[in-house]
Amino acid sequence: MTITDDQQNRLRELQKVFLEENTKLNLSAIREPDAIWIGNISDSLVALDLEIFQASDLKVLDIGTGGGFPLLPLAVCKPECKFFGLDSTQKKLDSIGRMTIALHLNNVRLITGRCEEKGRDAQHRDSYDIVTARAVAPLNVLLEYCAPFVKPGGHLIAWKSMKMDTEMEESLLARAELSCHLQQQYEYELPDDWGKRQLLIFEKTSATHKKYPRETGIPKKNPLL
Ligand code: SAM
Question: Which domains, ranges and CATH numbers included, belong to the chain?
Answer without folding.
Answer: 5-221 (3.40.50.150)
